[in-house]
Amino acid sequence: MKSSRQLAILEIIRDANIETQEELADCLRTRGFTVTQATVSRDIKELRLLKVLSPSGAYKYATADKAENALSERFIRMFSESVIGISHAYNQIVVKTLPGSANMAAEAVDSLHWPEIMGTLAGDNTFLLLTNSTQEVPAVLERLNAMLR
Q1: pLDDT-based confidence at 68, cuts 50/70/90?
Q2: Could you give the angle at which helices 2-15 and 21-30 cross, rounded to 10 degrees?
Q3: Which of 61-65, 101-105, 120-124 is predicted least confidently?
Q4: DSSP string, the chain
Q5: Could you give phi then psi for residue 11, rounded to 5 degrees?
Q6: Are strands 83-89 and 59-62 parallel, antiparallel or unpaired?
Q7: How confident is the model at residue 54 (pLDDT cuts 50, 70, 90)?
Q8: Three-state secondary structure of 89-117
Q9: What is the sign, positive or negative, of the torsion defined by CA atoms of 52, 54, 58, 63?
Q10: Neighbouring C-alpha atoms within 13 Å toward the C-beta of 142
Q11: Distance in angstroms (rounded) separating the CA atoms of residues 12 and 140
Q12: How far is Cα 34 from Cα 7, in angstroms, rounded to an integer?
């Protein structure tokens, strides 16, 4: 019963923007589950659901991987709005940003977990990105430039 209820919760939050535990309990009841708010609360903890900001501006329940994707999308948007130039030498890529934006832009790149990137080092308006080899630089530059579009 518990596993089928939790599977139903995952389906519900995937298909609808559920903002409260009571909304989730109501959806479960319409599917034939007898639940209390305490049961729903325990299921939310066990499933490790998070509240994330939806495109409409309201908060909704989501799984951790969906929350991470939403965060990555937000970082990419912030990256594209703050980067003003990209240059490179050897296995190093230098990204110029608006003042005070380099840390956020570097975090956006780090959050993508690209295997070609060894790491980033940020200042105020510039960050350095190190690739594993010079051969990987063109592919990374192409993806960075795609993020700017």
Answers
A1: low
A2: 110
A3: 61-65
A4: -HHHHHHHHHHHHHHS---SHHHHHHHHHHTT----HHHHHHHHHHHT-EEEE-TTS-EEEE-HHHHHHHHHHHHHHHHHHHEEEEEEETTEEEEEESTT-HHHHHHHHHHT--TTEEEEEE-SSEEEEEES-GGGHHHHHHHHHHHH-
A5: -65, -40
A6: unpaired
A7: confident
A8: ECCEEEEEECCCCHHHHHHHHHHCCCCCE
A9: negative
A10: 6
A11: 38
A12: 15
Tokens of 52: 């994330």
Which domains does the chain possess? 2-62 (1.10.10.10), 70-148 (3.30.1360.40)
Tokens of 133: 């080899």
8, amino acid identity:
A
Position 132 pLDDT exceeds 90: yes
